[in-house]
Amino acid sequence: xxxxxxxxxxxxxxxVRDPELGMDIVSMGMIKELKVMDGDVSFTLELTTPACPxxxxxxxxxxxxxxxxxxxxxxxxxxxxRVRRGWGGQPIPIEIPGIKNVVAVGSGKGxxxxxxxxxxxxxxxxxxxxxxxxxxxxxxxxxLTRFIRSYRFEAKGKGKLSPAEGPLGLKIMSxxxxxxxxxxxxxxxxxxxxxVRQMLLEVDWGELDYLVVDLPPGTGDAPLTLAQTIPIxxxxxxxxxxxxxxxxxxxxxRMFQKLGVEILGIVENMSYYVCPGCGxxxxxxxxxxGARSAxxxxxxxxxxxxxxxxxxxxxxxxxxxxxxxxxxxxxxSFRSLARRVAAALSVLAVKRGAH
Length: 355
Ligand SMILES: Nc1ncnc2c1ncn2[C@@H]1O[C@H](COP(=O)(O)OP(=O)(O)O)[C@@H](O)[C@H]1O
Ligand SMILES: [Mg+2]
Description:
Order of helices and strands: HEEHEEHEHEEHHEHEHEEHEHHH
Number of strands: 12
Radius of gyration: 22 Å
Shape: globular
Strand content: 15-25%
Largest sheet: 9 strands, mixed
Bound molecules: adenosine-5'-diphosphate, magnesium ion
Helix content: 25-40%
């Protein structure tokens, strides 16, 4: 009986496409360590992120096209995931060693849930098995420390600062951990830029697949400087459904785009209220505002996060909802957001030819 060659196996695998990118998995470099010995085929399928919603579909297709090849006796497929590096189009000369993707979370104004989204996105990404850090760069409204109050922060005497350890191995660094008293920090943009760069470069982050950065809100001096001084792979803009909030979110989004920052999409927070008695969704601030704005400016709407009192209570207590209420609607919406963000970053990395 004739046995297939390595080439024939690769040709068969070329028939499997990533549903999101439309590219075949061989061209994307996802097939590693292929060995064909007398009808026994073994290879590693290296997925672009552990969080891609199509992973299991790709796995199944890869296995079945090889199994269907005439002469194949057995298929041994190892599945791994390696997040690829991919920087944006900003004209920024620095790279941060060990950090593959920087996801910036911005908003048009404060109080819309930027920190809540950044923190829960980071936790949801960690939950997929990726290594994740979060940097609170909102020097004006630093509130991440509230979320991580219960976690230890340690500054080593010499060399690099160690980030705090959060739930699921999340690494956390915040201006609020450095500045401990209650006086508000009145800093101008360049100083903010300098401090945040320092936190990126002088904190011992180790190897990170994703670093989520909680930016200062608005289009002022501080966010503008940050968009010009830190390398951002992609940005997310958080808004609430009210028209005034949407208008100002779009203004912020345009600012990032002008500075060459790739926009991953919009997140609408406090989209609806879930009636605790009957489970009905009440769209108290109007329905579909985020979706309409996203469509108008041609960026994806990544998630609609419900308004849930438990979210506020959780962040006040310093425990993220994915940990305390893993089955809740809000936890699910953060997981879905994380999957979409990870997928968008994989797409970008492939488009930019990153390895
Ligand atoms: N979806 C939500 N449901 C309920 N409370 C929320 C939600 N999102 C945010 N909050 C609460 O609203 C307040 C402002 O959120 P925060 O994340 O600190 O906003 P920002 O970082 O934009 O200033 C906090 O008390 C937070 O717990
Ligand atoms: Mg905040």
